Predict the structure.
Amino acid sequence: MDTYEITGGKKLSGDVTVSGAKNAALPIIVASLLADGETILKNIPDLMDIRTIITAIEHLGASTEFHKEKNTLKIKVGNIKNADLPYDLMKTMRASYYVMGPLLARIGEADVSLPGGCAIGERPVDIHLAGFEAMGAVIKLEHGYIKARAKSLKGAEYTMRKISVGATANIMMAAVLASGRTVLENCAMEPDVVDLGNFLLKMGARISGLGTERIEIEGVKKLNPVEYSIIPDRIEAGTFLLAGAITRGKIKVSRVVPEHIGALTDTLEEIGFRLEKGPDWVKISPSQKLQGTKIKTLPFPGFPTDLQAPIMSVFTTIPGINVIIETIFENRFTHVGELRRMGGDITIEGNVAIIKGVKGLSAAPVMMSDLRAGASLVLAGLAAKGKTEIRRIYHSDRGYEKLSEKLQALGADIVRVRGGNP
Ligand code: UD1
């Protein structure tokens, strides 16, 4: 298995361009199943999760061509030949459950294995299922599979008991072809959900209220295949800003929507970093006076849970006391043990992490436990004294396109070692 070797201590500088958003691309690729014909998707990042979802829609009957150098994916949809997604496809990636909405809408049945994915807590799917039930689907759990059936989906009024990105997207995909009007309350407002909604609108769906907590959908009979370009990845953009922060470097992150990372840039400013923003870029530079701060992960526009692990690495280097409250997922502190091994002073009490800034981190052999925990170790390695060896980097391959190449271009000393330690 490949590893990263990072010799820390280099101040990063220069420009980096952000790839397309994984968490928008995944539901949009699946939503292409809602229209017969050829969909063309641009700005699709070349990532393991994208390949997995492509395999999933091919299994269901789509044919695809992925031009990874151009980041363009062509998807041809004719007959949907399978309604099931086997465990082998689900276990590597939780987002495979997105097939449920489109399958129910198009053929009235969907059998998917209960999800696997990141090891960051229990992550149930009850809100998705209750939404399908509200629209008339019958759901059974059998032999590790969720089996959903609906002769025809009917529009419904449904209030999600908790804000869920996945459930908002999944139910929206089912509702666009249902008969009548669906009113969803307590919806996720994440840019990824809005991007999916914009894609569906372009296909001919009738949706209002995107980006608010109430979304209304008037079902249509048929959707048309379209060409669409995915938004930039706000989590990747945020990770690069944090790479600038932890190395006290000067970085310009290009092809980003600054409003998508407002919670992060506000936090970096509170710490004392200098931020400049343009229409599609953000620059970070260091300052002499940095001080600890407090964040709480929340649904958008709050601080994203996906940047909690990465910012914790930066906090280990900020003088004073820093506090993180993780409210989205339990068990999302698996990076803490590894950061402690690199010298981080971190105390955990339930869902609260208290991080005391230390003078410097020191290199150690460490291991990724999930995608964003993995990013936090790369950031720590960039700042640590000595050579950090990071194992199980397949986790970061799931969500960061050309991570080591992009960091090298900013001056980092990071090498991907093929066939390194398992
Ligand atoms: C979540 C994040 C998203 C992030 C992604 C990957 C939020 C609101 N969502 O999206 O930003 O990119 O993880 O790390 O920050 N839940 C249920 N039942 C359900 C669905 C969800 O109880 O049926 C709970 C989850 O356990 C979690 C919360 O609701 O505590 C939010 O989950 P959800 O937004 O659905 O998760 P993802 O779509 O994976």
In short: Residues 363 and 388 are 5 Å apart (CA to CA). Residues 3-19+232-417 form a domain with the UDP-n-acetylglucosamine1-carboxyvinyl-transferase; Chain fold (CATH 3.65.10.10).
